[in-house]
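Researcher: Structure prediction, please.
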Amino acid sequence: MPDITLAGARRDVSRFGPSNVLTFMDRDLELQLVSRLRTRDDEAFEAVHEAFNARLYNFLARLSNSRDVAEDLLEETWLRLVSHAPRLRPDTRLGPWLFTVARNLYLSYRRSRLIEDAGSVEAAGLWSIAAHPPSPLDMAEASEAERRVGAALASLPAIYREALLLVAFEGLRPSEAAAICGVTPEAMRQRLSRARNLIDSRLTVDRPPILQSLKEVIT
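Model: Predicted structure follows.
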């Protein structure tokens, strides 16, 4: 049986990036996982879940500005993978596939409830979330800069927020983010540029270093 551990994957431990989550998966490993998912291999599901669960949760929580919504949509995302696994294309890219499903579920959720896109009090605390609510220690360690950037991100319209989340935080290529969002690469570049300008305008005083990091990622 091929080795499907995450030994071939690189982890980014940047404090302000997608901290301690998988940001790159070896393509051969990914193809092995897809092949085994197509046969409903339980260990392959577990490996994919380990690699992407925290990332998907963070994406959905920051996109929806709600942990509760993120938990519900995350569960449905994994159910979709289970049901669709035998029909995956052999060359499927797992990250883009999962983020596309998660995003589409969020859009369906918004449409079904006629939800307006707006920030919330909870949203300001979603900057440093992991796959579970933060502990008191986590909250104490969260810096004022992180909270301000998190609030600025939460205040962006959804189309710009998702662009930043996919490219700046999840490390996807702009072309992959464009496919996930169903737009052209040029449209995604325009969204990223607009998102960068919007978040910059919301942090006009004492801009934290993370803002420059975001600019470098999406430029």
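Model: The CA atoms of residues 6 and 168 lie 23 Å apart.
Researcher: Thanks, that helps.
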